[in-house]
Write a structure and sequence with these properties.
Layout lengths: L3 H8 L6 E10 L2 E10 L2 E7 L2 E8 L4 H11 L11 E7 L2 E7 L2 H10 L3 E3 L11 H4 L12 E2 H14 L1 H6 L3 E7 L3 E8 L2 H14 L8 E4 L5 H10 L3 E4 L5 H10 L2 E7 L2 E6 L4 E2 L2
Parallel strand pairs: 3-6, 4-7, 8-15, 11-12, 12-13
Antiparallel strand pairs: 1-2, 3-4, 5-6, 9-10, 9-11, 13-14
């Protein structure tokens, strides 16, 4: 059972990130009743200039960062300056995020005709045409080099940063790693794409140079994860699980070094291996 100090650190992450439930556990042939902690998952509606655009199922933490990251990685805005204002309202049935963007961006968004529902594990959820789903890849470039030893150290340390997952066991994480400082930021969510958007939003606010570090995710590497990373210029993306074939093709074409199965002091490099230095 986590102590009060640990639970307080989780609560600091945001509003209703987990719930306590009574469960029946069978273990080694014996039955017991106990309280367990489960990850929260709520509808989060993103509204642009007063009009609903998307409802995502997400962990209700770091929501301003999520809104900023989503807006940029989905091409709704082109830079942080176009994220003019944001207000967050906690409703009885979910969370409403009101975002103000320039009128020209809003008109472009309205012309797309998209109003979508994003489930927890969705990839290209809500895209209504092939053109919307398969966006032209954005090329990235940079001189970053990482060592296999450095990657192994990050993998050993990442679980210690995953407070919500330690509590619930149901949360994805994406971390930003600096070659000199290790894990500098980490964001968690029930949806891996949400965790990535939260992290990107956090780093955008700090005017981060996305070519100066790399990202590692505690999930598989799917197409939309690579696509979102390219939108801000990330050159190295590592995952503890496997990539999809589509993700590999996008990484190869866009210039991203894509690493999979990063665990147990080993990894598989699927594209642009020149950025990884054996050690």
């Amino acid at each position: 059972m986590p102590n009060d100090e640990f639970l307080a650190s989780i609560l600091d992450l945001g509003w209703s990130s987990y719930q306590s439930v009574s469960v029946t556990r069978w273990q080694n042939g014996e039955c017991s009743q106990l309280d367990d902690f489960v990850a929260e998952e709520v509808p989060v509606v993103l509204m642009y200039n007063g009009v609903s655009h998307v409802v995502m199922l997400a962990t209700p933490t770091n929501l301003e960062d999520f809104a900023l990251g989503f807006s940029l990685t989905e091409g709704i805005i082109a830079n942080v300056a176009e994220f003019e204002s944001v207000k967050i309202y906690h409703r009885s049935n979910g969370v409403e995020i009101q975002i103000k963007i320039p009128d020209v961006r809003f008109q472009h968004l309205a012309d797309k005709g998209r109003n979508l529902t994003g489930r927890t594990g969705c990839g290209l959820c809500g895209a209504t045409t092939l053109k919307q789903a398969m966006k032209p890849p954005r090329s990235v470039s940079g001189d970053l080099k990482i060592s296999t030893t450095e990657l192994a150290i990050v993998l050993q340390n990442i679980s210690g940063h995953q407070k919500l997952n330690q509590l619930t066991g149901a949360i994805h994480a994406v971390a930003w790693v600096s070659p000199d400082n290790g894990i500098e930021e980490l964001r968690e969510d029930v949806g891996r794409h949400n965790a990535l958007d939260k992290l990107i939003g956090t780093l955008l606010k700090r005017d981060t140079d996305f070519t100066a570090g790399f990202m590692i995710m505690t999930s598989r590497a799917s197409y939309e994860m690579v696509q979102k990373a390219t939108m801000v210029g990330v050159t190295v993306l590592a995952a503890i699980s496997a990539p999809t074939a589509l993700a590999i093709r996008l990484a190869e074409e866009s210039g991203v070094t894509l690493i999979g199965f990063a665990r147990d002091n080993s990894c598989v490099i699927y594209s642009h291996p020149e950025r990884v230095i054996p050690s």
